[in-house]
């Protein structure tokens, strides 16, 4: 968890959320989960008691794209492989934890890292960091407001080393793959997509035009990266069980993303399928 300090600050000084406040705010999310998300989940389960809401349709209407993975021009891209999204110690666990556990997301992402490294495939991570100046924004969407309010992905400044054992840190299970001196760690994205960072440049400079996409969270950063990379001319495969999303009264983020993945990705694979293709 982040070792933040006082919440009393002038606008121009460091924006920090102390651990107590993070716990209180995360507890508030837990209250939402217990009071209302439980009802939402129960209703969803009642409607789909005999059918997995995430299962692929028995007879789809959309055509196959004919996508073929070419290892020589492909990269694994993982969005936000960070504690605040994927660990019980993270500030969003109360709303994403059920989905993360349901899809075995943490282990599936690790398997993708391992398989890509063993095959010599380029690996890039697109992290989400907020610095003090980012907290001087004067407007934002609901999820942006929430992330800023709970101190999600906070770092002291752009010049400091990545603080260890905080919500902004990479998951311990992934550090051997991310910090091997070969993985591309892009400049941070600030909202959901990679428009503000150097992901596309880094991939283009390696003559990569196929992306295997995974990470957090499904209907936010993953879907936004999918859309932007497609617009940039990349072919994109999404790994459906190497992501997850919040479940809120407003909806199940994973289910929302899954529909769009089916509609717009060049392919939608499971982790097992992806690992098998990487092992070739």
Q: How would you sum up this structure, described in words?
A:
- By secondary structure, the protein is an alpha/beta fold.
- The protein is 40% helix and 11% strand.
- The protein has ten helices and eight strands.
- The longest helix has 29 residues, at 19-47.
Give the topology, please:
Elements lengths: L18 H29 L26 E6 L3 H4 L6 H10 L2 H15 L2 E5 L15 H8 L25 H4 L5 E2 L13 H6 L5 E6 L2 H14 L3 E5 L7 E2 L2 E2 H12 L2 E3 L1 H9 L1
Parallel strand pairs: 1-2, 1-4, 2-3, 4-5, 5-8
Antiparallel strand pairs: 6-7
Core attributes:
two-stranded antiparallel ribbon, 280 residues, 10 helices, six-stranded parallel β-sheet, 11% strand, 8 strands, alpha/beta
User: What amount of the residues lies in strands?
Assistant: 5-15%
Q: Considering DSSP H and I runs of 4 or more, what fraction of the residues is helical?
A: 25-40%
Strand runs, count: 8
Helix and strand content put the structural class at alpha/beta
What would you say about this model in short?
This protein is of the alpha/beta class and 280 residues long. It has helices spanning 19-47, 83-86, 93-102, 105-119, 142-149, 175-178, 199-204, 218-231, 253-264, 271-279; strands at 74-79, 122-126, 184-185, 210-215, 235-239, 247-248, 251-252, 267-269.
